[in-house]
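can u pls check wat happens w/ 2-acetamido-2-deoxy-beta-D-glucopyranose
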Amino acid sequence: MRKDLCSRLGLAAAATLLLSILPQPVFGLEVAYNTAWIEGTPLDYTNKNTYKIDKATTVNGGVATLGSVDIAGNAETQGLKQYVSHKNYRLIYVIVEVGYRLVASKAAGIKTLTDLKGKRIGTIAGSSAEVFVRSLLNGAGLSPSDYTQVSSNVCMRSPCGAATFPGLLKDKKIDAFGVWETAVELGIEALGESNVVVFQNASLYREIYSLYATEQSLKDATKRNKIVHYVKALNQTLDIFRNQPEKVYSTVSSGIGVDVPVLKKVWDDHRWGPTSLTDGVLLDFLIREDRYLAKADKRQAMSREDLQKFIDPSVYEDALKL
Ligand SMILES: *[C@@H]1O[C@H](CO)[C@@H](O)[C@H](O)[C@H]1NC(C)=O
Ligand SMILES: *[C@@H]1O[C@H](CO)[C@@H](O)[C@H](O)[C@H]1NC(C)=O
């Protein structure tokens, strides 16, 4: 009896030792994204439904979480900001492009973009939404000193508090705001469609919400294989988002806490992936945005070669072969 126990313990110890010496198999994929945004919901759907070769788990985060997670979803603005100091980050897939909107109150005397001169305009400092607002107004000849930028919180489901976008617009504390959906749609509803004017220009600025991985993960054969399968699964998810949205409205809506009728209204502002990574449009867009961010962040703009390296189309190309 005693002897038997001893040998069992010995066996267990040997097994533990063996496990600690052998390379550990990598289980699962960890996927970071902001779980409160529409843009991240295809990742949620993929983790739960279409990624089948392995287990994918959600971590609330973004591209800044890379390194401790395997892949991450985030706007190109955050991607670029991280890439400045993490040249090993790679943009491997475009999940969705969103033409942000800016809603303005007619009662404040706004009919055209140039009427925004001298007005109070809400957005989120340091975000893709700020890039949008500044690019849109710059296109109308207005520089940041021509208007007052107001920061606050985004509300995506009514009832919205007073200190939010759209609460501030409703209470006339601001004259307009530009941010991601569904907040803008709620702003339109708060004032009434006939009392607002809505501006959008996707060629000046659109959010390019993308998937990122590190160069190291992509060089590790086991990890890369999982990521390639993940991209394939994500691409299947987006086919559903694009062509059969009725299938996902309710899970997207409950996942991020927005109402289905509001979600349906903003759905068409979302152009679900894939988008070409190689036709030069994305690269030119990133070069232009990086020049803007470099100026705002008081740093050197990155070179075309560096930004070309940031985009890695090889994962998608491998996914096409599956
Ligand atoms: C969008 O911006 C571009 C570049 O400034 C301009 O040529 C175009 O007319 C704008 N489109 C709309 C709908 O305002
Ligand atoms: C992704 O989806 C598009 C549109 O459905 C399809 O043409 C393409 O082949 C798919 N790519 C991959 C890697 O499966």
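Residues 26 and 222 are 8 Å apart (CA to CA).
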